[in-house]
Specification:
Number of helices: 25
Shape: elongated
Largest sheet: 4 strands, mixed
Strand order of the largest sheet: 4-3-8-5
Length: 629
């Protein structure tokens, strides 16, 4: 129950935001009051303060906050369970029977108007509710909508579906028929109160109306029992919220309506014995979760990744790459374009979140996914001390580090950076950009404990990235360069060798990688002189080199002779470097034993070291130019 308790506490600490409309991109959202939900509205009907019809309009499927009971929130099929104020046309139109409606519509309206009457006449009522009740009880809604041209009748009956025969009879099709799937009686109607004298807050955004319904509805609840979350004796619910990830999401986190299978039977006689949660706690926890998802959640192929602080909601997410946590204005500073510069910027960015640390400051990490359309599960949950969490994030970005040049800014210019890749980029490096969506989200989930709990990166992921980085022929050059830098970051996290070239290392894997890098640069530079653009022998033979380095090195070395002749004296220093590296081998290490991933570290570090040297021919050609960008 820890995750529910933390969500409940998050709601309690943000009561001032309840009902306040916030915006993220083009999407509006709010921390919903309890006993409320959202529905897609198709028609808006405005009522005067005297309870008379004013106007109506068709909406473009607008999400609307509405009052809801336990029963209406979970209604399905033929069950009659009206919402308290806004609802489908078949519920709110008392005169639908006069226009062809049947016994079902009659029962729906009776249930609707009876509930609305109880609220309108209660001590918790609100003037706007009384106004709308006065209008709806007059049973003139269909007549008014027909007069407005929103609905159409044929021989005294309401046209509920449009067909081609109506084109000639009525002309153009009314807008509503294009907005609603199925019968127009399923169109959702929201009401509002219009005033010519006073500026009115829309009823769905009116906090006083929200509070009016909450106060009224809580008085109607019964069935007190022990709440597992608060420890208090309160009204318990067995009907928990859906629409968690979006307004069309039917999956529930807590459900106990499967009494014929194995949900709880066998251990418990009743579902409430398995999970006894009060209505108010369930509502607040689920509403806080929906709000946080809209505010800062990330959904990858239907799997939700959410990170929030219980004291301060905003916190660095563990799945980001290093450049994403550094303020944009600091990225292009000259002092930042070094390993030390990026490390300092990461420290400053993360330390900024430590200013409000206290004994109760925690960070919550929650991963949710739905196995079926109606059931959602908690895939991963961790509540961790905020200071410890930030230290581990910092450690990740300063240990799983390499130089990367695959990110672009808003002008599509390359942003080189030192640091850790994002978890999604690691997955794509391991399994390719066409990886199965289930593989992507499950691997991202497996990587989070490596960051948050300081665990080792799973070896199968590292092996896969290393294997793909050793196969440049299977991908475009930009993708290979990205895969190579990510492979080196993962290997560096494990080995701790560092980004800079280690000229003192005697490790055979590292030394063989350095040799391959020199061969790669000799051919690349020779190609730049002739303005040739093709794959180097070092890339072509990379797989063979990693499996049989001694034998393959002889082939690569022999193929360098034409390029040496082309470069002339300019190749002398590079050939001297080959001899220097070869001399560092122990005699028994220069063999055909397959190489491990450390050879990629030697290769990449040596390439970066050589790229720092300025080699220009007599005509001023920059031999450091990246030929295949």
């Amino acid at each position: 129950m820890t995750w529910i308790n933390n969500l409940y506490e998050t709601y309690e600490k943000n009561l001032s935001r309840v009902g306040v409309i916030e915006q993220k991109g083009n999407q509006e959202y709010t921390l919903m009051p309890i006993a409320h939900t959202t529905q897609t509205a198709h028609i808006e009907v405005s009522i005067t303060e005297n309870g008379e019809f004013h106007s109506a309009r068709v909406l473009d499927k607008i999400i609307t906050l509405i009052p809801a009971t336990e029963s209406s929130s979970s209604r399905s099929g033929s069950k009659i369970a009206p919402y308290l104020l806004h609802d489908k046309l078949s519920y709110v139109a008392g005169d639908l029977v006069e226009f062809g409606g049947g016994e079902k519509e009659k029962k729906q309206f009776s249930a609707y108007i009876e509930q609305l009457k109880d609220w309108a006449e209660s001590s918790s009522s609100h003037p706007k509710i009384k106004t709308i009740y006065r209008y709806v009880s007059g049973k003139n809604l269909i007549k008014d909508l027909v007069q407005e041209g929103i609905l159409i009748t044929d021989n005294g009956n309401l046209v509920i579906k449009w067909n081609k025969s109506f084109d000639e009879k009525f002309g153009s099709k009314p807008e509503l028929f294009s907005k609603v799937t199925g019968d127009v009686t399923s169109a959702f109607v929201r009401f509002n109160v219009y005033s010519a004298q006073n500026e009115q807050v829309e009823i769905w955004n009116d906090k006083n109306v929200h509070n009016s319904f909450v106060e009224f509805y809580l008085k109607t609840l019964s069935g007190n029992d022990y709440c597992f979350v608060t420890g208090k004796y309160e009204p318990i619910t067995e009907r928990h919220a859906n629409k968690i990830r979006n307004s069309a999401d039917k999956a529930k986190l807590i459900s106990s309506n499967d009494k014929n299978e194995f949900t709880f039977r066998g251990r418990f006689d009743k579902s409430i014995e398995a999970a006894s949660i009060s209505y108010e706690v369930s509502q607040k926890a689920h509403n806080a979760l929906k709000w946080l998802i809209n505010r800062q959640g990330k959904i990858v192929n239907e799997r939700l990744f959410l990170v929030w602080g219980n004291e301060d909601l905003d916190i660095i997410a563990p799945d980001l790459d290093t450049i994403s946590i550094i303020p944009r204005e600091n990225i292009k500073k000259n002092e930042t374009n070094t390993l030390k510069g990026f490390a300092n910027e990461v420290s400053k960015a993360i330390d900024g979140y430590k200013s409000d640390l206290n004994t109760r400051a925690e960070v919550n990490i929650l991963i949710l996914d739905a196995a079926t359309q109606g059931r959602m599960s908690v895939q991963y949950y961790k509540s961790i001390d905020k200071g410890l969490y930030l230290d581990r994030i910092k450690n990740w970005h300063q240990s799983c580090v390499w130089k990367h040049d695959y990110r672009k800014d808003e002008n599509k210019e390359i942003l080189s950076f030192y640091g850790a890749p994002s978890t999604k980029d690691i997955v794509l490096a391991a399994y390719g950009k066409k990886a199965n969506e289930k593989v992507v989200k499950s691997t991202m989930e497996r990587l989070l404990p490596c960051i948050i709990e300081n665990r080792n990166i799973p070896q199968d992921i590292v092996r896969s990235v290393v294997y793909r980085a050793s196969n440049p022929q299977t991908m475009d050059n930009w993708e290979w360069r990205k895969t190579l830098s990510i492979a080196c970051a993962l290997l560096n996290h494990k080995e701790g060798i560092g980004v800079s070239l280690n000229k003192e290392s005697k490790d055979r894997n590292y030394l063989f990688g350095r040799l391959l890098a020199v061969a790669y640069q000799i051919e690349k530079w020779a190609q730049s002189v002739q303005k040739e653009y093709r794959e180097t022998n070092a890339e072509r033979y990379m797989v063979s080199f990693s499996n049989k380095p001694q034998r393959t090195w002889k082939v690569i070395h022999d193929n360098l002779l034409p390029y040496k002749a082309r470069l002339g004296g300019r190749a002398t220093k590079l050939y001297d470097l080959v001899i220097e590296i070869t001399d560092q081998f122990e005699e028994e290490d220069f063999n055909d034993k397959p190489l491990d991933g450390k050879y990629l570290l030697g290769f990449s570090s040596q390439v970066m070291d050589l790229d720092k040297r300025k080699h220009k021919d007599d005509e001023g050609v920059d031999l450091n130019e990246n030929i295949r960008s």
